[in-house]
Every structure is written in structure tokens, then in C-alpha cells.
């Protein structure tokens, strides 16, 4: 039986353990953050060489840790190939880079401009000129909708940018860029899953009616939206698969927005949460287990 190191112990870990075990893949958790990690063995090198404790005897990893600094240490200690390695996580996390690559490949995306701080207000003013208000402002590499806001006019936009500037003033902040993006009102929000090049299911993320009436618009599950399994059109399935192919990522969540006849890729996630099996295609776990086996074989 293959042994898979999983660097999350949240919902995905609990959901995949049983189905993957049924397919010959034993899943164990490797904690990659909020702990201490031995970096060098020093005088204990010979003892450490005899076995690496919790990091020993794994065949593959799933997926590269979200904290890249800790991930480098865990990667070295595990010494296994990853379903979605460091490059895949970095690629997907860079929202502007993803949209640029997809646009270059002819895939539909929202109109978007990247602003790289620090810049003068004149640069922001010029950047937003091609857009109609309201616009969406979002940090380039944040997740779960953190820091995403709308601006209804230039003064509101510059106010949001003021707060971003305060964060970016901290010298250790790595990514000081943010996006100005067209707002797509009343868009349906889908998360399509692609495994090893094939669409394997999707959910629609939707806020409760009372939240919508209150003016909320971000359909993140972590912000109270519900994820319901749906069957996507052939057009949407094809778009999700072409997105994964363009980015060369084997296991990918593709966020699609659909409104007024438009269907666009909004973001991607190389560390997507696995939802309940009933929300995916019948072959979801067979295909996922196959990808894990192929990844492990590549490291032999």
C-alpha cells in the first residue's frame, strides 16, 4: 500500500482517508506549521540517518505546504515527489500571473490590472480609467477572500489602497501587488475540480438569501457561503480543463464566474478543499488515486 503524506488535517484529510485507503493509498498527516522543525542534525547526524521519524517511509506528498518557508524543510525531510509541488502552488497563488497566462492562451478572464506598490495616486487613477465602477480590489496572493473589497468611486478606491499601503509599508511583506478588476454583478460562482487533466466535478458556492439582501457578494465558503454539488455545462468543463492544462497543474480548483452569458476564470487554487464525494463525478477518487500512484512512481 502506498503511503501518502498530507500536510493538512482539516476537512480534506478526513474526507479522503477512507476512499483512498479503499484504493490502496494510506494517508497520514505531517504537520508543516505551528511547530518546531529540526533543520540540521549536527552531532546527531548518524543517528538521524538511521530514520527520520514521522517523515520516514512515505511515497508521495499531497500537496506542498501552504507556508513555503516551512515547506522547504518538510520537503527535504520527506524527500518524496508531490501531487502539486512548490512550483504549482506558487503558480496558482499568483492571481495576476494566472490571469495573464490564461488570457495569453485565449481563455476568458475578467478585465484586470495589476498594481505593484509603491505607486503614486496618479498611477492608481490612470489604472482604473478603463473600468466602470464598482470595481473589485484584491491582494494578489491572498486566499479565502481575505482583503477583497469593492470600490464604488475613485475616493473609495483610494481609501482601500491607503489600507493596502499601510500593510505594504512593513518591509517583510513579500507580495506588495494588488489587482483592480471588473465587478461582475449577480455572477454565479463555481469551483470546478480538475484531476490529472480531467474535469471531475464542481460545486456552486452561494450565500444565504438574507446575506445577499444585506449587500454581501463574496461567495467564499469560509465567509458563510454553502457549496452545493452541480453539473456544469460542457463549455464550463472544457474551460476548467484548459485552465489546468495551460497552468500545467495536475490537481486544481478552478473558480468560474457566470453572468449575462459570460463565463470567465476568476482564480485558481492548487490546494483546493475536497468536498463530499456526492458532489463529484463517480470516478473522482479513482482518478485521484491514479494521480497519486503515478506521482509516487515518478519518484522511484
Automatic annotation (TrEMBL):
GO terms for cellular component: cytoplasm. InterPro entries: ATP-grasp (IPR011761), ATP-grasp_RimK-type (IPR013651), ATP_grasp_subdomain_1 (IPR013815). One of its GO terms (molecular function) is ligase activity, forming carbon-nitrogen bonds. Residues 99-297 form the ATP-grasp domain. Keywords: ATP-binding, Ligase, Nucleotide-binding. It holds the Pfam family RimK. PANTHER family: BETA-CITRYLGLUTAMATE SYNTHASE B-RELATED, RIBOSOMAL PROTEIN S6 MODIFICATION PROTEIN. This is Alpha-L-glutamate ligase. It comes from Halorubrum persicum.
Amino acid at each position: 500500500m502506498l503511503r501518502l503524506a498530507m500536510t493538512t488535517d482539516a476537512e480534506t484529510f478526513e474526507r479522503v482517508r477512507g476512499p483512498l485507503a479503499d484504493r490502496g493509498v494510506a494517508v497520514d498527516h505531517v504537520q508543516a506549521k505551528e511547530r518546531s522543525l529540526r533543520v540540521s542534525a549536527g552531532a546527531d547526524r548518524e543517528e538521524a540517518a538511521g530514520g527520520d521519524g514521522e517523515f520516514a517511509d512515505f511515497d508521495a506528498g499531497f500537496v506542498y505546504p501552504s507556508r513555503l518557508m516551512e515547506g522547504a524543510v518538510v520537503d527535504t525531510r520527506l524527500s518524496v515527489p508531490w501531487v502539486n509541488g512548490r512550483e504549482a502552488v506558487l503558480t496558482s497563488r499568483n492571481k495576476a500571473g494566472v490571469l495573464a497566462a490564461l488570457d495569453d492562451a485565449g481563455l476568458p478572464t475578467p478585465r484586470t490590472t495589476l498594481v505593484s506598490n509603491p505607486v503614486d495616486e496618479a498611477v492608481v487613477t490612470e489604472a482604473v480609467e478603463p473600468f466602470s465602477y464598482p470595481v473589485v480590489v484584491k491582494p494578489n496572493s491572498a486566499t479565502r477572500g481575505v482583503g477583497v473589497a469593492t470600490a464604488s468611486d475613485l475616493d473609495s478606491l483610494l481609501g482601500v489602497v491607503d489600507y493596502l499601503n499601510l500593510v505594504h509599508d512593513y518591509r517583510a511583506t513579500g507580495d506588495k501587488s494588488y489587482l483592480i478588476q471588473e465587478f461582475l454583478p449577480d455572477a454565479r460562482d463555481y469551483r470546478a475540480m480538475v484531476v490529472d487533466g480531467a474535469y471531475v466535478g464542481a460545486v456552486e458556492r452561494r450565500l444565504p438569501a438574507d446575506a445577499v439582501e444585506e449587500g454581501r457578494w463574496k461567495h467564499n465558503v469560509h465567509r458563510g457561503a454553502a457549496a452545493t454539488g452541480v453539473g456544469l455545462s460542457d463549455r464550463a468543463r472544457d474551460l476548467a480543463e484548459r485552465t489546468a492544462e495551460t497552468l500545467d497543474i495536475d490537481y486544481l480548483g478552478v473558480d468560474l464566474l457566470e453572468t449575462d452569458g459570460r463565463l470567465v476564470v476568476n482564480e485558481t487554487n492548487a490546494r483546493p478543499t475536497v468536498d463530499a464525494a456526492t458532489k463529484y463525478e463517480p470516478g473522482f477518487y479513482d482518478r485521484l488515486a491514479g494521480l497519486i500512484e503515478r506521482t509516487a512512481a515518478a519518484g522511484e
